[in-house]
């Protein structure tokens, strides 16, 4: 057995990693190692490394308030250090299975429009024209967004001329920074490119969950669609700008046939009980990695009302798309109903 300490092995691992990864990735490794891993493990002797000590480390990070994703990042880096130490015979092979609870939060502080900001015609006068959404801080995403859609909300001409922004009322640590740059990551890559170009390339775009075209009534409405939590990394040319955009356009066509269409939409990273692998990409303007959804869904509820406002008829339809390059084909069922 080697006489190397945990600190010795970590220093050697850093020197080795520096040769093989991007400077930005290396900086993240060093930051997490120095801030979280070394303070805990530097006092632990190599022979005391065990599943129990690693579990205590993960539990301690949770107590500190780190997100599940941040804990996973720290455990991933710790695993690399442990495997590096095994190669140096600093300690034996350590088998461990770490458990920690998933947590999610529902955002109750999304900016909403005042009554005076909302469309004021027909049966929808005074109804909320903004959104309800559930934000999962571990996935840096809105897992669902629900909103009413009717002619006044999308028939305006207010094109947004500003830039993306962090959502108000939510810590920026729970959001991916895409307000100064897009992801700048090509499809198939996991990190941004310094020479990124959209010309002739397939890439991950800032895919809206609520499309800005659904919120053209006022600038205050369309601006809300450019908050970071309304975006996920979405394949641009043959998904976001293709079949998904076609579906969004078809939804607005449906909204014109009724007084209100209720829309709910969101990403899916893993199905219930599923074990799908999730791609995490490193964007241009953040040290946090953004998860790429494996699927997207959209559900519509169409209602008809009588002169008193009572619902006289209703129908629903749902859509489920695998997030991959696809041909743009508008669902016939939506067009014809």
How many whole angstroms does the radius of gyration measure? 24 Å
Overall body shape = elongated
Low-confidence stretches: 101-130
Record field, number of beta strands:
9
Compressed to H and E, one letter per element, the order equals HHHHEEHEHEHHEEEEEH
* N/C terminus separation: 72 Å
Strand order of the largest sheet: 1-2-5-8-9
Helix content, binned percent:
25-40%
User: What characterizes the major β-sheet?
Assistant: 5 strands, antiparallel
Q: Which class best fits the helix and strand makeup?
A: alpha+beta
Enumerate how many helices there are, as a single number.
9
> Could you tell me the mean pLDDT?
83
Strand content: 15-25%
Describe what this molecule looks like in 3D:
It is elongated, with a radius of gyration of 24 Å. The strands form 3 sheets. A 5-stranded antiparallel beta sheet has the order 1-2-5-8-9. The chain has a two-stranded antiparallel ribbon with strand order 3-4. The longest helix is centred in the first third of the chain and has 20 residues, at 68-87. It has helices at 6-18, 23-41, 51-63, 68-87, 151-154, 219-224, 236-240, 243-255, 332-335, and strands at 132-136, 141-149, 204-208, 231-235, 260-268, 279-281, 290-292, 295-305, 311-322. It is built from 9 helices and 9 strands. The N and C termini lie far apart (72 Å). Helix 1 packs across helix 4 (68-87) and helix 2 packs across helix 4. It is α+β, with helices and mostly antiparallel strands and 337 residues long.
């Amino acid at each position: 057995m080697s006489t190397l300490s945990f600190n010795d092995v970590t220093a050697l691992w850093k020197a080795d990693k520096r040769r093989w990864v991007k400077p930005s990735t290396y900086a993240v490794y060093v930051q997490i190692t120095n801030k979280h891993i070394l303070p805990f493990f530097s006092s632990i002797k190599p022979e005391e490394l065990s599943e129990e000590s690693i579990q205590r480390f993960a539990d301690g990070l949770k107590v500190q308030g780190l997100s599940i994703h941040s804990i996973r990042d720290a455990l991933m880096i710790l695993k690399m250090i442990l495997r590096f130490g095994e190669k140096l015979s600093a300690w034996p092979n350590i088998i461990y299975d770490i458990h920690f609870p998933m947590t999610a939060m529902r955002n109750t502080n999304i900016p909403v429009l005042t009554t005076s900001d909302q469309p004021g015609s027909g049966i929808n006068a005074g109804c909320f024209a903004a959104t309800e959404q559930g934000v999962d801080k571990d996935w840096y995403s809105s897992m669902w967004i629900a909103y009413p859609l009717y002619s006044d909300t999308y028939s305006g001409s207010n094109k947004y001329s500003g830039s993306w922004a962090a959502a108000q009322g939510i810590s920026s640590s729970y959001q991916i920074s895409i307000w100064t740059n897009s992801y700048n990551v090509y499809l198939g890559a996991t990190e941004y490119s310094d020479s990124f170009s959209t010309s002739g390339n397939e890439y991950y775009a800032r895919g809206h969950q609520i499309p800005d075209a659904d919120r053209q009534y006022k600038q205050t409405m369309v601006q809300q669609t450019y908050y970071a939590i309304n975006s996920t990394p979405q394949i641009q040319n043959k998904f976001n700008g293709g079949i998904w955009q076609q579906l969004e356009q078809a939804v607005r066509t449906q909204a014109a046939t009724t007084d209100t269409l209720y829309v709910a939409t969101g990403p899916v990273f893993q199905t219930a009980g599923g074990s799908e692998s999730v791609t995490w990409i490193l964007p241009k303007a953040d040290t946090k990695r953004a998860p790429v959804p494996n699927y997207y869904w959209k559900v519509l509820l169409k209602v008809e009302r009588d002169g008193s406002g009572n619902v006289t008829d209703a129908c629903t339809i749902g859509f489920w798309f695998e997030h991959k390059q696809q041909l743009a084909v508008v669902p016939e069922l939506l067009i014809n109903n």
